[in-house]
Design goal:
This protein is α/β, with parallel strands linked by helices. The chain has 14 helices and 13 strands. It has 2 domains: 199 residues, Rossmann fold, CATH 3.40.50; 142 residues, Glycogen Phosphorylase B (Rossmann fold, 3-Layer(aba) Sandwich), CATH 3.40.50. The strands form 3 sheets. A 7-stranded parallel beta sheet has the order 3-2-1-4-5-6-7. A 3-stranded parallel beta sheet has the order 8-9-10, sandwiched between helices. α11 links the parallel β11 and β12. The radius of gyration is 21 Å and the shape is globular.
């Protein structure tokens, strides 16, 4: 069976690319189609596949400007040549699910979220604090057409898989389609407590892209108020503004290797997670290291963090609400072994078993019985 994997873009190893890496391992002979591919930006396990870029990806500098090409991304997705493939598996948070498979193909979409830029997170990307007025005006004009395309192109998918119940509800709300829920995996073998773990250091941790919808400013405001130490790992467009807000107790560490992130998870008192994520792999990685999580009470964190057992929630999107949750956390007692057990529910082995079983039912013959 000829198999094509379709991914929005290959420009770095983030959560979506880690899922692609695992699925591509189930189909070692599959081709990968994407809007933009920056060679060497993803893992060798992905790079060893034949990778085909859209016309957009062949333009000079596409790896730098593709995020600004949102209005034409649907055209780029539809241009991918999928003729002759019998199974298409799209991994989509933007437009990949809108590709045009061969009429005889089975199309399974692993959906990280419907296109957040035009639905739930539109204000975060194109609101007054996020974009210039010409961009805001243009996107307000284009938004209805992009939403219409997003809805209509969902009919090209035969089977939807959501990466959380939170996303399942979005798929139902925006597309009117049911979906199975298969949680993405965390690397619970790599992320684990330190041998003979001792007392933790006196700081809190954020691991996140520094983008508007991540709401890192809530944490910066809260820790400015309290004076507690906060370390922030990650880069992104919001970094200059966040650094301008932050007091001397808040340290920006920039990009760090997986080994550095592991060390930070093992050392911190707790992970701070102020955004609304579709799933949110970072809290699971932290819990795999026995680290509690203080998260906002919405989104995928509600499906991974067990309140009072592996962490706490704050309910209002305000610095004061987060500060109260941190105080409550410090009054609590936390069993790091129990916290890790919760993370093991989201292991790579569990994901492979569930996704393989689903694919066998949706596309008989695509995988051998023991894949």
């Amino acid at each position: 069976m000829r198999v094509a994997l379709v991914h929005d873009w290959l420009t770095g190893m983030r959560g979506g690319e880690k899922v692609l890496e695992i699925i591509s391992g189930l189909f070692p002979g599959a081709d990968i189609h994407t809007l933009v591919h920056v060679p060497g930006s993803v893992s060798p396990a992905i790079e060893r596949h034949r990778i085909f870029s859209s016309w957009l990806g062949r333009l000079p500098g596409a790896g730098r400007f593709y995020r600004y090409a949102l209005p034409v991304l649907p055209l780029a997705a539809e241009s991918l040549d999928l003729a002759g493939y019998e199974l298409v598996i799209s991994l989509s948070h933007c437009v990949a699910k809108g590709c045009r498979p061969d009429p005889k193909a089975v199309h399974i979409c692993y959906c990280f979220t419907p296109m957040r830029y035009i639905w739930d997170q539109f204000g975060h990307y194109f609101g007054p604090r996020a974009a210039s007025w010409p961009v805001r005006a243009a996107m307000n004009l284009l938004r209805p057409a992009l939403q219409d395309w997003d809805i209509k192109s969902s009919a090209r998918v035969h089977h939807f898989i959501a990466d959380s119940r939170h996303v399942e509800a979005r798929i139902r709300r925006h597309y009117g389609r049911p979906s199975a829920v298969i949680y993405p995996p965390a690397d619970t073998e790599f992320y684990r407590p330190a041998p003979g773990e001792g007392p933790r250091e006196d700081f809190y941790l954020i691991v996140s892209a520094l983008a508007p919808y991540k709401r890192i400013e809530l944490a910066v405001d809260a820790f400015n108020l309290s004076g507690r130490k906060l370390k922030i790992i990650g880069t992104g467009q919001s970094r200059p503004a966040l650094r301008a807000l932050a007091g001397p107790n808040i340290e920006f560490l920039g990009w760090r290797s997986d080994e550095d992130i592991l060390s930070a998870y093992r050392s911190c008192r707790a992970l701070i997670f102020p955004g609304i994520e579709d799933f949110g792999i970072v809290p699971v990685e932290a819990m795999a290291c026995g680290t509690p999580v203080v998260a906002f009470r919405e989104g995928g964190a509600l499906e991974t963090v067990v309140e009072g057992v592996t962490g706490l929630f704050f309910s209002e999107p305000s610095a004061q609400s987060l500060e109260e949750a941190v105080k409550a956390f410090e009054r609590g007692k936390w069993d790091r072994e129990i916290i890790r057990k919760q993370a093991l529910l989201f292991s790579k082995g569990t994901f492979i078993q569930e996704i393989s079983s689903y694919i066998r039912k949706a596309a008989p013959g695509a995988l051998p019985p023991d894949a």
